[in-house]
Design brief:
With 375 residues, this protein is an alpha+beta fold. The chain is 31% helix and 30% strand. Strand 8 and strand 9 form a beta hairpin. Helix 9 packs across helix 12.
């Protein structure tokens, strides 16, 4: 801790606050505070910084107290990417007005090149004449919250189509004419690192569909869930990563696999701000010859879905996902609670607990105020 912080920078107790606390109490409280805090004097020098502030800004307290708040090295930017001028800095406003300034948000580029979104509140410490003696700035790293907000309010997805040769499909499906489309409903991660995938098709008989999926080395087994009006749905347990899981890992979802006489197409979607080359790289781990043949950025709001997904834990979301696509809510059920609990490697009571909590969260967002805002 630096010696530059003057002793009278410690907050003064009010006349009604009771016995005067030990002289070093304020310093000790600041030091252990979970909120990043710095103290700035009227010259702009940072005269105190706690450990939390140093951690948030990627430096030491000593490095912080060797700077001023308005140095260009801070690389402070507003939400639209423009630099924040000194005149608009909240510390400047507090020094000029002697009034607090709350809710200032900005990006900051750290020395290692990473960026963080900070939310700060600044308040003056006044002397006996009412002049600003110090400015106390408390701030928090809001980067994850900001990214979550951007994800929840994003209204664009990127529809992608990849193509490779027929070596990517089981021999029994390498047809000469016509297309075989297999829809990918969901890819559910399991606690052991495997996935359960729910797929459907109207282009194959139920038995052919199950047999074809079991030919693919990634899958340990496949189970027929239902057949209705010529459309069959299956549950397939994948023991290793699949092409469909590539989309999920990037925050998107696989849509379909289309098998034709001249090759195979993988259809999927990614968030609009995700580079599709990442999906290319992931799929090439399975099929080195795959190429991205088309992409289309479209408006596709899923606000309620994203709000609910963000509110659920990973286990709760996976339980709800598996229950829905596994036919747990169908009449008659195509998967029982015991079936799904076995997939997750947990007791039925534990699985039901995850599922009930997930359902409660969905209904809360649908019917309570937060749900009304999201619709």
């Amino acid at each position: 801790m630096t010696d530059r912080r003057p002793s009278d920078a410690e907050p003064r107790p009010s006349a009604t606050s009771g016995p005067t606390p030990p002289g070093d109490l304020a310093r000790r409280v600041f030091d252990v505070s979970p909120i990043s805090t710095v103290v700035v004097d009227p010259t702009g020098a940072i005269v105190f910084a706690n450990e939390r502030a140093a951690d948030t800004l990627g430096c030491t307290p000593e490095e912080l107290t060797s700077r001023t708040y308005h140095q260009s090295e801070w690389n402070i930017y507003s939400d639209d990417g423009t630099p924040v001028p000194v005149d608009d800095h909240p510390v400047t406003r507090v020094l000029e007005t002697a009034e607090p300034d709350y809710g200032f948000e900005h990006w900051i580029e750290l020395a290692d090149g990473t960026e963080r979104w900070l939310s700060s509140n600044s308040s003056p410490v006044l002397d006996g004449a009412g002049e600003v003696e110090y400015v106390v700035v408390s701030f928090e790293d809001a980067t994850e919250l900001k990214r979550r907000e951007e994800r929840l309010t994003s209204d664009q997805v990127r529809l992608l189509e990849f193509r490779t040769d027929q070596s990517a499909v089981p021999p029994s499906l390498r047809v000469e004419g016509g297309d075989t489309r297999i829809d990918v409903d969901s890819v559910v991660p399991m606690p052991d690192g495997t996935t359960v995938q729910y797929m459907g098709t109207a282009d194959l008989t139920a038995n052919t569909f199950v047999d074809a999926v079991e030919e693919v080395p990634h899958y340990r087994e496949a189970r027929l869930l239902s057949t209705a009006e010529g459309y069959s749905r299956i549950e397939a347990h994948a023991g290793s990563t699949t092409v469909s899981a590539v989309f999920s890992a990037l925050g998107g979802r696989a849509r379909a696999v289309v098998i034709a006489g001249d090759g195979v197409r993988f259809l999927g979607e990614l968030p609009g701000d995700v580079d599709p080359r990442l999906a290319v790289d992931g799929i090439r781990e399975f099929h080195p010859e795959v190429e991205l043949v088309s992409e289309d950025l479209v408006y596709s709001p899923h606000l309620l879905y994203d709000v609910v997904a963000d509110a659920l834990t990973d286990r709760q979301f996976a339980a709800l996902d598996a229950a829905y696509f596994g036919g747990y809510f169908d009449t008659p059920r195509t998967s029982t609670g015991d079936d799904l609990a076995q997939r997750f490697g947990v007791t039925r009571q534990t699985f039901n607990d995850h599922l009930r909590k997930a359902q409660r969260t969905v209904l809360t967002h649908l019917f309570e105020k937060s749900g009304a805002d999201a619709r």
